[in-house]
Write a structure and sequence with these properties.
single chain, 0% strand, Serine Threonine Protein Phosphatase 5, Tetratricopeptide repeat, 8 helices, 207 residues
């Protein structure tokens, strides 16, 4: 009988905590509507102290962080909601919001995965589909297709080889031309020498 009483008492306490958390979430929502985001966040944090696994409080707190510019904190909470919440609709919204915040942080690859997860849970979400397409386009602009880059990289060594080969070929040709010139010069000198010898012999002869 003692065990039963303890269990009943425990459930009663948990029920009080849950009611308190719901009240705090409602208060936070009212503050959020008034755009008093810091007060809304404080109410959601109190709700989580009362019920630390409350996915709605986490989701709403993430939204409050997001509008206050606390992007990293928001992403962390959205991720927690996607992992712990049993509600498919809430999980899909958390994935969508996570994707939106990651896009803002320019983490496009992570953003794309978040939008894909949102669409897996809610295939009819047009906004998620549109944002996914936008993120994919932005990623393509940021990272051009690898084939073009690879082709450019392949072409560069070939161009360098051509540039290196060209001077070598011209040097060989220069050497060959130089040899030809030297040979011609030798032949010319020989002819001149022969002509001098002939001229010297003729001039020395007494007619």
């Amino acid at each position: 009988m003692k065990c039963l009483c303890i269990i009943v008492l425990l459930f009663s306490v948990l029920d009080v905590y849950a009611q308190n958390a719901d009240q705090l979430i409602a208060e936070g929502n009212e503050m959020y509507r008034k755009k008093e985001y810091d007060k809304a966040a404080a109410s959601y944090e109190k709700a989580l102290k009362a019920d630390r696994d409350n996915s709605t409080a986490k989701f709403n707190l993430a939204n409050a962080f997001h509008v206050q510019g606390k992007e990293e904190e928001a992403v962390k909470l959205y991720a927690e909601v996607t992992q712990s919440s049993a509600e498919t609709t809430l999980k899909a919204k958390a994935y969508y919001n996570k994707g939106a915040v990651l896009s803002k942080l320019n983490k496009l690859e992570e953003s794309i995965e978040a939008y894909k997860d949102a669409l897996r849970l809610n295939p009819g979400d047009k906004q998620a589909r549109e944002n996914l397409q936008k993120a994919l386009l932005e990623l393509k602009k940021k990272n051009p297709p690898k084939k073009q880059n690879d082709q450019q990289k392949k072409n560069k060594p070939q161009e360098k080889q051509k540039q290196q080969q060209q001077p070598k070929m011209s040097q060989k040709e220069a050497e060959q031309r130089l040899k030809l010139l030297e040979q011609k010069e030798k032949e010319l000198q020989q002819r001149m020498q022969q002509a001098k010898e002939k001229a010297g012999g003729q001039g020395g002869k007494d007619w």
